[in-house]
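Human: I'm a chemist; would you kindly supply sequence and structure tokens for a protein?

Assistant:
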Amino acid sequence: MATLLQLKYIVKIVECGSMNEASHMLYISQPALSSSVKELENELGIEIFTRSSQGIALTVDGAEFLTYARQVLDQVSLMEERYKNAKPRKQLCSVSTQHYMFAVEAFVKMIESIRSDEYEFTIRETRTRDIINQVANMRSDIGILYLSDFNKQVIGKLLREKHLEFHPLFRAPLHVFIARTNPLAMKKKVTMEDLRPFPFIQYEQGEEGSFYFAEEAVWPDQSPKQINVTDRATILNFIIGLNGYTVCTGIDNGDLNNEKIVTVPLDTDVTMLLGWISHERAKLTKPAQVYLDKLRDVLGDHGYDVIEQ
């Protein structure tokens, strides 16, 4: 049967996302690592990883095996701590998210609440397709994204194909971020027509991106001024410096410079159903469960009704 060393190999490969990087971290050659994995696959009669020119990815069987492997290693760690006075394994949690301030705020609160001498936490603000792939390959425990009437069929189909589950958190009416100096800043609501003269700023989704993967739930039909960016800090600077706007949930926190940027409701019937995704065969780590609790707390603090499950 599988050895503890082989289980550690599998977990490290998934954490690194590539066989080459894992071999460096484990201080063994890549051929030796590949051979050990192949030997384990042959012994168990399953395929743990699919291999292609783009790299490796967990199969459905591999995702299930990873869950058991982590449980075994956790139990071994507890036993070593009890009888060898060894240090417990580092607390681990990885989150992939669209560019939401509340997701980062909850992540900070999760870290503050974890009492552990050692931990390794990762949060990735990234493209929609990357979020889905990272959770599918178990590089991330949790993904944060939204569904709307426009994208739910395409995104939902992709989630099902990759054996992922969507768990709704809250429904948000649409807002825009605009500069306080913008002439629309004092309006109770704005329309897309009102916004037409100003630069529309959106998160870039890459070559494989499409409207279905856009982080903005609506966008102008014809925008003479459009800017694509990859991070939140840039968007906020462009809103101030270029008098641009972006479509968002409207949730504000300390990242937003309230002296220079305001949120204004957008006059539309479209809403965003924000939620988190997980692999259907994965068991959440304790820090990941704490993160979800903090996420619900943050949303409640911002006045949103969290959907109970």
